[in-house]
Amino acid sequence: MQESSPTETPYTALGFYHKISQLRSDTWNALKRDLGILTRLEEEGRAKNLIKSIDIKLTRLEIIEDYHAFPSKEDFRYLWLLFHRGEYEVLDKVVKRLVRALISESYRRRHVDLSETDAGAEDMETLDALNQLRRGHPASNSSAQPYFELLIVDNLSNQEEEVVREAFHNMRRPEDRFVYDVVTVKSFEDALIAILVNPNIQACLIRYEFPYKSKYNLSALRNYLEGLSEKELEHQTEAERSILLSSMIHELRPEIDQFLVTSGDVEATASQDIQYFNRIFYRETDYIEQHHTILRAIDNRYRTPFFDALREYSKKPTGVFHAMPISRGKSVTRSHWAGHMIDFYGINIFLAETSATSGGLDSLLQPYGPIKKAQEYAARAFGSRRSFFVTNGTSTANKIVVQALVKPRDIVLIDRDCHKSHHYGMVLAGAHVSYLDSYPLDDYSMYGAVPLREIKKTLLAYKRSGQLHKVKMLLLTNCTFDGIVYNVRRVMEECLAIKPDLIFLWDEAWFAFAGFNPTYRPRTAMNSARTLRYRYRSESYREEYNTWKAEFDKLDPEDDATWLDQRLMPDPDLVRIRTYATHSTHKTLTSLRQGSMIHVWDQDFRQKVESSFHEAYMTHTSTSPNYQIVASLDVGRMQAEMEGFELVHAQVETALSLREQLYTHPLLQKYFRVLKNSDMVPEAYRESGVETFYDPVSGWNKMEEAWARDEFVVDPTRVTIAIGNTGVDGDTFKNEYLMNKYGIQINKTSRNTVLFMTNIGTTRGSIAYLLDVLIKLAKEFEYRLEDSSRPERKIIEQQVHSLNHELPPLPDFSYFHSAFRPNPDTPQGDIRCAYFLSYDEENTEYLRFDNGKLQAQMRDGRDVVSASFVIPYPPGFPVLVPGQVINEEILDFLQALDVTEIHGYRPELGLVVFTQKALINPAEG
């Protein structure tokens, strides 16, 4: 939506909602500043310029605030009245009060009347602001009623809007669990923009008749409205347009509770496809019924079944006669030495501690009560059919899924640079592993993701060898540690065209937050599974498939190009949607460490998997799970449903602000180059042609296009910075510069990059601090260069050249030795056999490669085969796995690494490899 203001600057285009909340906040503060100057200004010429600037800002803010409950439309009419009367001192006081109310969020707790400009009212705002600072965040005041906003879509006059708003205000009661205010919009387009720019909206009441077109130019909605004809919509019935609006609101923000108010045949309307409405009201229905229905719907999402049960349990007096001395805090409250533990944690964590087998709560292993209900709510929130809590991390979640689905000798296609838990999971399951190579980013010592063409080519090879029936699962990481995100739907669709019953396991450890943002959501596993399931059931897809199949059958099925050079479509009569996702909830949403979830969308779960899944879950889950982790998962789910859209939106905004400064600041650009889309995704995988999401003139206006079309995209909340120009390697920069000097913690580095990740807890202040640190470091590198002698400068230049240009090519997976290859015609290996063969010491020996001994053996014609996993940190994935043949490229890469942590490698001994005798007739362990 483009703002029709006299001047245009970056980010005044309201339609690009990624930065709308920052635009809103910054514009209010700028307006307050201008008014403060104006009231002190005596020079007439300058005053005219300021008055014009204030006019522009008020116009801009009026458009933004049209979609928020506070300040209301009536409030804005009051602001304009003061402005047009020239009462600038009064306007200055009112705006200051308004800004304080927005900052302190006092409007959530009490009515703010802007016409009250007395000192008492201002003192209340100041007190609210101070309380916010004391608490850290207003939401931490648990005694306050949670606040939300109700969107009403109806073509009302200004007077009618006030009547409706007042009617709902009059419904409030002190005993209500929640408090809410009303936002009214007049059109289909305005409703969509409201739910995009206003995260406070939690419920929507679609009433009566409303036009399609907004009075604003909503160009940003073109992606969402593509294929819709304004003319067709204008001729739709009231019910048809309401149902279409409801479905689009659900796609953008599925958590919003929706209600329909109809003036027509309510029974006939109820018989239509109205799956996204909680309830239909006839227009005569009184406000009190609507009020209570809305509150009940909000309460249904706000509940935390297990956390609530745990809190109630902690209040009960119980006698403890089971094997947990710390339960009820008994072992520490009576201690003369351990009391400081209570001082640190507080008493509640101990009062809520109990044995899982003692009764009183629920069992994670076989839930029947509040844990079962909490998991059902999680399935609703994350869009799955079933969800399961895991209290010992996503490493365990991955192993549970693999064990539940994969039998010994089943073939699993897996990206080689995935998390190590998957590789060990293959060992435990006895799977035959077929590794897939990701595209390399040699300039930055990191891998991207596995191209779809590579996956299809591998599946096709198994099809032609007659072994496709043995291929059970495709396992991929979405998104990768570095932020590369798959086009999940396309991968699934084309793979299912080759093998209709293929199971997908998407490791979304770093992507749990993605389901709560409309741009990210379509690239998640659960959303893609749901979308494809309903797509394949439709008659329109069957017609589309039949047309495609008729053309496909004219091509040569033995020609690789037939399968690889076009988009494939699965047979709707054969396809089965079998999709699993694992989430590290603690990594990107609110949860205690090791809190993770498994989400399932599998048509065959009840018939084929439920029993084996339960056994796998029992195998890997402790009989003494941490109830505090379970409770945090329950609360984290609730928070994601109630304010996930807002939090993820803010996360993206902070990341974009960081990227923007790194793109444009001259000194930062000299030493720190933020990698953009084209740096991390080769052109062949960018159908949109978008190289960067940011443009200095038009701002952030290309992200949606890339995310809608490209095979791979970069998650902008993961900011990878190339630091080669500093002459400092990634590990040193992380430890000596960021952590030791400034206390900044990061997770990942490569030889010449560092990764900064924003999350839902990242604030604009945190970004400002990071930028301040980077500027200080850039100045330090600048001074170092200026003050260095000629020989010192030469050394720095050599270090810079080495980090930027002397990077070894990343090695692809070589191959499994024939001793561990069940079939010589296909690439899979028996990793379990190799792993356990190494348990007998006589089967292995050590060979050093730093002295050339291992290389000499290779030159003599020996196949040197790894007997263990070799995992350097970074990059943090196996460079070698048991049974893999070692080649020169792998050794070159290991020799070029300048990291100190390499699991599975002992420098004084070398690499552990199989003896030649052990490879003649390996016995499975």
Instruction: Report the structural category.
Output: alpha/beta
The number of distinct structural domains comes to 5
Q: According to CATH, what is the class of the largest domain?
A: Alpha Beta
Rg on CA atoms, Å: 30 Å
Main sheet characteristics = 8 strands, mixed
Strand order within the widest beta sheet: 6-15-14-13-11-7-8-22
- The geometry reads as globular
Question: How are the SSEs placed, and which strands pair?
Answer:
Layout: H1 20-40, H2 44-65, H3 73-85, H4 88-104, H5 119-135, E1 147-153, H6 158-169, E2 179-185, H7 188-197, E3 201-207, H8 222-225, H9 230-234, H10 238-252, E4 257-262, H11 266-270, E5 279-282, H12 287-302, H13 305-315, H14 330-333, H15 339-345, H16 348-351, H17 370-382, E6 386-390, H18 393-405, E7 411-415, H19 420-429, E8 432-436, E9 440-441, E10 446-447, H20 452-464, E11 471-477, E12 484-486, H21 488-498, E13 503-507, H22 525-536, H23 539-552, H24 560-564, E14 578-583, H25 585-588, E15 596-602, H26 605-620, H27 627-664, H28 666-671, E16 673-674, H29 677-680, E17 694-695, E18 699-700, H30 703-709, E19 712-714, E20 718-722, H31 730-742, E21 753-757, H32 764-787, H33 790-805, E22 829-830, H34 831-837, E23 844-847, H35 853-859, E24 871-873, H36 888-896, E25 901-903, E26 905-906, E27 910-914
Parallel strand pairs: 1-2, 1-3, 3-4, 4-5, 7-8, 7-11, 11-13, 13-14
Antiparallel strand pairs: 6-15, 8-22, 9-10, 12-19, 14-15, 16-20, 17-18, 20-21, 23-27, 24-25, 26-27
